[in-house]
Model the fold of this input.
Amino acid sequence: MDAKRVKQILASPANIDVVYNGTSVWIDSLHEDETRATVHLRGPLEERSEVDISELTEA
Done:
């Protein structure tokens, strides 16, 4: 995924399914360098991780 698409997803009111390493995640924010994002798993666990946006895909 690229930074432009991450920004579109963050700005969208729609529920867009994003996958990281085979797991559905929410994107919380895009970092200033526009190569990394903070995400958390969908569901009750809200553990946040920093990931490379190139590893994110839309389901």
Notes: The chain has a mean pLDDT of 94. The longest helix spans residues 3-11.
